[in-house]
């Protein structure tokens, strides 16, 4: 098996992991008025889905011959290659992902939930749809 085939398999395996986390996040997003526990779950699913999303981008980019060393590089490269369109929202999500540890404060948790619903989930959804079609090719 060539290195290229291994890289192709890696991003496809990563997509499978991302898909599971994304679908859990989507289920949480569908809850209109989440309880404190449901909100915490939504935030946790976002953290998992986002982490797997940038790693999916990294793995795919490496299969295309790029060298990617960080989440920020993966996002910038994906934006330059038109794999993602909301570059600033992705960078904001990268920065906000670290804020989610402060969600013990309910007002902060509600604010984070709103960002996830209105800004970051659409980015992850677009990535999911795009890669779902790539896997099907």
Question: Main attributes?
Answer:
78% helix; 0% strand; Four Helix Bundle (Hemerythrin (Met), subunit A); mainly alpha; 5 helices; 137 residues
Word description of this protein:
The chain has 137 residues and is mainly alpha-helical. It has one domain: Four Helix Bundle (Hemerythrin (Met), subunit A) (Up-down Bundle), CATH 1.20.120.330. It is built from five helices and no strands. The protein has helices spanning 3-29, 36-63, 71-80, 87-97, 106-136. Helix 1 (3-29) runs antiparallel to helix 2, helix 2 packs across helix 3 (71-80) and helix 4 crosses helix 5. The longest helix has 31 residues, at 106-136. The mean pLDDT is 90.
Strand content: under 5%
Number of domains: 1
What's the rounded overall pLDDT mean?
90
User: Which fold does the CATH topology refer to?
Assistant: Four Helix Bundle (Hemerythrin (Met), subunit A)
Task: Describe the largest sheet.
Answer: none
Classify the helix fraction into a percent range.
Answer: over 70%
Order of helices and strands: HHHHH
The total beta strand count reads 0
Q: CATH first level: which class?
A: Mainly Alpha
Number of helices: 5
- The CATH homologous superfamily is called Nucleotidyltransferases  domain 2
The separation of the N and C termini measures 20 Å
pLDDT < 50 stretches: none
- Any idea what the radius of gyration is? 15 Å
Shape: globular
Structural class: mainly alpha
Query: Per CATH, which architecture?
Result: Up-down Bundle
């Amino acid at each position: 098996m060539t290195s290229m085939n291994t890289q192709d398999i890696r991003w496809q395996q990563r997509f499978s992991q991302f898909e599971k986390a994304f679908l859990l996040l989507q289920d949480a997003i569908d809850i209109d008025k989440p309880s404190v526990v449901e909100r915490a779950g939504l935030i946790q699913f976002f953290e998992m889905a986002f982490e797997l999303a940038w790693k999916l981008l990294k793995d795919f980019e490496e299969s295309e011959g790029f060298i990617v060393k960080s989440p920020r590089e993966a996002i910038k490269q994906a934006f330059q290659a038109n794999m993602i369109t909301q570059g600033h929202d992705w960078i904001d999500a990268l920065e906000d992902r670290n804020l989610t540890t402060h969600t013990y404060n309910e007002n902060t948790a509600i604010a984070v939930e709103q960002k996830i619903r209105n800004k970051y989930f659409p980015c992850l959804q677009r990535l999911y749809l795009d890669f779902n079609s790539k896997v099907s090719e």
